[in-house]
Amino acid sequence: MVLGGGHVLKEIDSQGDCWRRASQVAHENAGVLPRDGDRVAVVGCGTSWFMAQAYAALREASGHGETDAFAASEFPEGRSYDRVLAITRSGTTTEVLQLLDRLRGVPATAVTAVPDAEVADAADELVVLDFADERSVVQTRFATTALTMLRAHLGAPVDQALADLEHALAWPIGDDLLERRPYTFLGTGWTTGLAQEAALKMREASLSWADAYPAMDYRHGPVSLTDGASLVWFLGGLVPGGLGEEVTALGATVVADPLDPVADLVRVQRLAVAAALAKGFDPDRPRNLTRSVILS
């Protein structure tokens, strides 16, 4: 009998309500989020870092200002920014708190689910997404809600994402998708960060062999891993240049549907949980992981 997964399954299913509220949060917090023209550094750890990558690429590509994303432990000391934006679900991640302490004097906004956590003292401003907090160790709705809120702040409507989310939550997961070697996720531009997050979900929830690359860079070595046992997933649909046809010719299963990329990520979340349950794992409590990394 397989136990577990109850929290993460409910959290995945609840994302529509969270995304709707995220648009309002973006409007209410416009004054503490990055302004047009600001030079911004976005930081986080794990899933939050991948959301930072997606937002940074999206913000800069849409003309709102130079934007860099860093793992909090790898922030380049001495570089100048107008604002630091930290994404931390728990508000207790050691590397984020230490970085914000070192950057005192630089305006800092934290996006968190826990308003009374330590990050409240470390950051100048908070954007609180407590309605998207989670009991599962594996992040799903907090990450997508944070990114949806930041997309809304850039002026992106949520309507298409919500429509595609309905498709993602109803997507049938065949048994043939549950044990692929490897799962490879490909993105371009801002979806490269989503591809990294998709691979992380498969690894942490189901201990699957999963990796991620910029789509066009996949040809430069990683394609050698691909065969009939592989699944290759293009986040947000195929890229031009015939790569999808090349991968199909190698015998791999290709997933490349033109969904909103964040809604497409929800399909991967569901696949990761299904693969975990099929192996008898508890995706609410992956081995060796805790809700927040707190260093002594």
TrEMBL record:
Alphabetical UniProt keywords: Isomerase, Repeat
Coiled coil regions, renumbered to chain: none
All residue ranges annotated as the SIS domain in the record: 30-161
Stretch forming the signal peptide: none
The protein, known as: Sugar isomerase
One Gene Ontology MF term: carbohydrate derivative binding
Domain of life assignment: Bacteria
Taxonomic source organism: Jiangella ureilytica
Any single GO BP term: carbohydrate derivative metabolic process
